[in-house]
Amino acid sequence: MNSLPKSIRPRSPFAPTVAPGRGPERFRVAGPIGWMRDPYLERNVAFVAEAWERARFRFIETAIASQTSDEFLSLIRNLVGVLTMSVDVMGETNAGGVSALGVGVAGLPGTAIGTGAGYALSVQLIEGLEAGFLLADIAPHLEAVDRAFAKGVKEAWESSGSPLRIHAAARIMADAVGIFFSLLLQGLIAFLAREMGGKARGRLRVALADRKETKLLRLSNGLETWILIQYDRLIAHFRADSMFQGQGQSNVANASTSGVLTPRIQPNPLLPDISKDFQFREYVSDGKTYKQGSGRLGVPGRIRTHRNQNAQRGVSEGSGDDAGHLIGNRFGAPGGPENLSLQNWVANRYGTYKGLEDTWAEALHRGSDIEVTVTDVTRPNEDRPFMREVRWTETQADGKRLAENLTFANTHTPKSRKAQDIAPTNKPGEVGKVIEVDFTKKD
């Protein structure tokens, strides 16, 4: 027998509970006594199911585009259709779908209806995408998906079958899915940024290759290529949004039907040192000295740079030339003398060779991989190269390969002639002679 005064006794789980509605439906027994056959709950679960179906067929794609971009949606559209058809919001339940909607022992209208359903939805989507490798990045933010989805469930649950309220519930549920895919994209970029600072060593294609067999990349038509091209823009966008949100600015969030602010995941790119990935050598053939550097170019901004001003002064001081890099500093090559030669300062800073390096940088940021071999040639008894030959192979984001080569004359400038006391090569009216060179010698 309960000896506590009635005024402070805990409420019996089987006591009648007042609920919205009219007549007998206002009083429900809040306890685990056969919810499966309770017509009140069955009816409301049916409203939730109707709203989810409407969300799947009419609003989810729009919500994803709103939370990410039309481009991203176009890449994953087919995958989204398959996923949402297979996701069973009502299935991971007992009591006829009630448990998964957050309706438990006291789960009547006015309680936390829908809580946890967004988490269950997120888990099913992650499993369907084989994207468990992104959990570390997105799991801390799935509460936003759950809150948005719970709002949609609650709206449908309390709709009493109103078409307008079920329509509103469907849009809110769709917004929760949009928030999930925004977190998915942000998490993927944050993951890749971390991978490139580690074993991928600044190579985005390598970082993607380890995950290309997941359904997320394998079944999303063109997503891998799109990321190769858009990676830097996405990094900049998500970092900027994260900084604004950190200052309490909410206007950077994408449009939200649910009213739930989409979290921003801060990508933290780590810059690897790839300087040891390049090879350098010198050899002599027919009296001429060949100084050569080769390797795969790093993407500017994604790798550490190694400019060594002391080494540059040691090469060029007092010469009127620049100490030009065979393989540019911005591509991650070492800054020591093995990668430096006397170079026409105009060509180095403003000329055609600088233009070639700019072209490489643009291609790298578009997702290309570029392998280069740069060779400086010096005549016998001289210490300044008179020419530079460049060969490179570009593998574009779509897999197309291009092989190119260019030769650059390393002419003197008035500044270098004066500093090195060098007379003009040809007298007035004379024609320069052709000098044979050999770029094929290996040793």
UniProtKB/TrEMBL annotation:
Pfam families: DUF6861, Endonuclea_NS_2. InterPro entries: Endonuclea_NS_2 (IPR044927), Tre1-like_N (IPR049195). It comes from the Bacteria. This is DNA/RNA non-specific endonuclease. Transmembrane segments: none annotated. Residues 1-21, 410-429 are annotated as: Disordered. Residues 61-199 form the NAD(+)--protein-arginine ADP-ribosyltransferase Tre1-like N-terminal domain.
